[in-house]
Design goal:
alpha/beta
C-alpha cells in the first residue's frame, strides 16, 4: 500500500478520471494521502487538450471546479483529495509536483500514440523516465473496452 499518491487527471475526460481514482483507492493505504493534479497551458491548448479563449485565471478556476466535482462524484465519503491545478508544461509540472509532495506513486492514464493529442505519448514517456517515484500507467478506457470486445 502507498501512503502518498499523485494522480494526473484530464479535466476533459470524466471516465478516465473515474478509472484512475478507482485504481488509486485500491493502492492507497487507509491513512494515505491522495493528490489530484491537472496541468493546463495558459497560452492556449491545455491539458489533454483543452483549448479555450479564457484568461489563465478563468482556466485555472474551471479546471479546479472539474477536479472538485470529480473528487466529490467518485471518492467515497470517508476519503478526501488535495487538488492541484498548475499552468505550464505537463510533464515537467507533474514530475516537479511528485518531487515536492514526496509522492510514493504517480498514476497516469495513457491514450498512447492514437489518442486525440499525439504529444500525450511523449508526456507519459517523459514523466515515466524523469519521475522521482514509480509511475503506474493505465491503458485508456477505449483500449480496455476494445480488448474486452475482442475476447
Amino acid at each position: 500500500m502507498y501512503r502518498k499518491l499523485l494522480i494526473a487527471i484530464d479535466p476533459e475526460d470524466d471516465g478516465e478520471g473515474k478509472r484512475a481514482l478507482e485504481a488509486a483507492l485500491g493502492l492507497l493505504a487507509e491513512d494515505g494521502e491522495l493528490h489530484l493534479a491537472s496541468v493546463y497551458n495558459p497560452g492556449g491548448g491545455g491539458f489533454f487538450p483543452h483549448v479555450t479563449e479564457d484568461s489563465p485565471a478563468e482556466k485555472e478556476t474551471e479546471v479546479h471546479d472539474v477536479l472538485d466535482l470529480l473528487a466529490r462524484k467518485y471518492l467515497p465519503m470517508n476519503r478526501s483529495a488535495t487538488l492541484h491545478v498548475v499552468a505550464g508544461n505537463t510533464g515537467e509540472k507533474l514530475v516537479g509536483m511528485a518531487g515536492q509532495l514526496g509522492a510514493d506513486l504517480m498514476i497516469l492514464v495513457s491514450r498512447g500514440g492514437s489518442g486525440h493529442w499525439p504529444m500525450r505519448k511523449a508526456t507519459v514517456e517523459y514523466v515515466s523516465v524523469n519521475s522521482p517515484c514509480p509511475v503506474l500507467v493505465l491503458p485508456s478506457l477505449a483500449k480496455v473496452e476494445s480488448e474486452s470486445v475482442e475476447e
